[in-house]
Amino acid sequence: EVQLVGSGGGLVQAGGSLRLSCEGSGFTFDDYGIGWFRQAPGKEREGVALISSKDGNTYYTDSVKGRFTISSDNAKTTVYLEMNSLKPEDAAVYYCAASYSFRRFIATMEPEYWGQGTQVTVSS
After folding, report:
1. Which H or E run contains 89?
2. Which of 26, 85, 80, 86 is nearest to 56 (CA)?
3. With the C-alpha atoms ordered 32, 33, 38, 42, is the resulting torsion angle positive or negative?
């Protein structure tokens, strides 16, 4: 059974930092692209950052470039999202997700597997 367990959300002041973790199991982690999506109330879900566990290629949505860093520890089957200089508009429920084809993942933003969400709240 594929499982993606996300954690690390919380309440932080604007300008602060948080690190999200997504631990995967039940699939060959090294073969997959893993990503973080977010959805705020009344807004569409958006892909925030993706990483290929196979070769380390990454994708970031424009609004987080230079502030967020995604990384993968394949030995721990865990992907991290380091979020710095957080803004109130970053507040959302963050979900990790996995897709076998990283190229397809970027093109469609439609992963095969989803983890549970973790709430990120940024106070101004």
Report:
1. none
2. 80
3. negative
Distant-in-sequence, close-in-space partners of 72: CB < 8 Å, separation ≥ 6:
34, 51, 53, 56, 78, 79, 80
Q: What is the largest CA-CA distance in the chain?
A: 41
What digits encode the pLDDT tens for the residues 58-113?
999 999 999 999 999 999 999 999 999 999 999 999 999 999 999 999 999 999 99
Q: How far is CA 123 from the centre of its chain?
A: 21
d(CA 72, CA 50): 10
Return the structure tokens found at 6.
Answer: 């996300």
> Looking at residue 16, what is its pLDDT?
98
Give dist(CA 53, CA 21) in Å, integer.
14
As a whole-number percent, the residues of the chain with pLDDT over 90 amount to: 99
The CA-atom distances, in angstroms, between 105 and each of 4, 18, 98, 111 are 16, 25, 8, 6
pLDDT 10s digits, 21-37: 999 999 999 999 999 99
